């Protein structure tokens, strides 16, 4: 699995490089098909992404974007804990992506996580297999992920049975160690069928886990289990996050 690790002095530098990277991913996708499918996580990601995207918007073909959530909390869409609300306020509200191309959790199902996951999987199937094509798993052009200090990504937590899901596209949990407890999440087979996955990880509290995940010797760390079979994994780090990594693990951003 090809992997590229970039470390930048500050979060602002991460934002600027991420913008160029997303633009390139968009252009590559539009050269192949007529849309750009991207999945977003919550946490600090929307803000880091928005800072770059909103600064130089002209090259983005927003009408071609189809935005999904890599994971979502089972809360109303206007709740302060909602990943959609976070992304909406950070950048979706400021760019002309058609509303029907932003795929949110069904707000009527947030009290029933399993049904919400099933509904979200159905939304994905409509988008990736609209004519009932035999699509085993969707292939996202780009999935943007965060990593928690415990090595979780999406809502896939170390030691949780969901890390073993091999069939569903979207799954639910009601015992997330990170609040709120009820969530839906893309599963590993979906992450690992993506064309590209990029982790955006900043801050000193990620230092130790980054060493463990990038070392690739330890099993069971969800962030380390993201290995797209035909895709590429990128890591966008700031210096505080990258501080304990060996220099040899870090690639030169000039390659972007
Ligand atoms: O909804 C969520 O909680 C997330 O999608 C989660 O997986 C997040 O990406 C990580 O916890 C990293 O979050 P930070 O970037 O805020 O540390």
UniProtKB/TrEMBL annotation:
Swiss-Prot/TrEMBL keywords: Hydrolase
Matching InterPro entries: 6-phosphogluconolactonase_DevB, 6PGL, Glc/Gal-6P_isomerase, NagB/RpiA_transferase-like
Domain Glucosamine/galactosamine-6-phosphate isomerase: from-to ranges: 12-235
Record has Hydrolase as a keyword: yes
Record Gene3D superfamilies: 3.40.50.1360
Function: Hydrolysis of 6-phosphogluconolactone to 6-phosphogluconate.
Family membership noted in the UniProt record: Belongs to the glucosamine/galactosamine-6-phosphate isomerase family. 6-phosphogluconolactonase subfamily.
Descriptive protein name: 6-phosphogluconolactonase
Gene expressing this chain: SOL1_1
């Amino acid at each position: 699995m090809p992997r590229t690790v970039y470390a930048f002095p500050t979060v602002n530098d991460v934002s600027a490089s991420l913008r160029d990277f997303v633009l390139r991913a968009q252009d590559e996708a539009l050269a192949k098909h007529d849309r750009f499918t991207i999945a977003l996580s919550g946490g600090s990601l929307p803000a880091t992404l928005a800072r770059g995207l909103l600064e130089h918007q002209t090259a983005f073909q927003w009408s071609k974007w189809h935005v999904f959530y890599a994971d979502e909390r089972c809360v109303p869409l206007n709740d302060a804990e909602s990943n959609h609300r976070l992304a909406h306020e950070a950048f979706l509200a400021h760019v002309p992506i058609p509303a029907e191309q932003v795929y949110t959790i069904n707000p009527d199902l947030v009290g029933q996580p399993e049904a919400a996951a099933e509904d979200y999987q159905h939304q994905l199937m409509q988008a990736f297999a609209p004519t009932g094509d035999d699509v085993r798993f969707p292939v996202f052009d780009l999935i943007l992920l965060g990593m928690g200090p415990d090595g979780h990504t999406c809502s896939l937590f170390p030691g949780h049975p969901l890390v073993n899901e091999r069939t569903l596209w979207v799954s639910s949990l009601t015992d997330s160690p990170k609040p709120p407890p009820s969530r839906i999440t893309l599963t590993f087979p979906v992450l690992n069928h993506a064309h590209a996955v990029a982790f955006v990880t900043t801050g000193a509290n990620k230092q130790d886990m980054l060493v463990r995940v990038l070392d690739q010797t330890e099993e069971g760390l969800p962030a380390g289990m993201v290995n797209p079979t035909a895709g590429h994994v990128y890591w966008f780090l700031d210096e505080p996050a990258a501080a304990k990594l060996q220099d040899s693990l870090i690639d030169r951003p000039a390659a972007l």
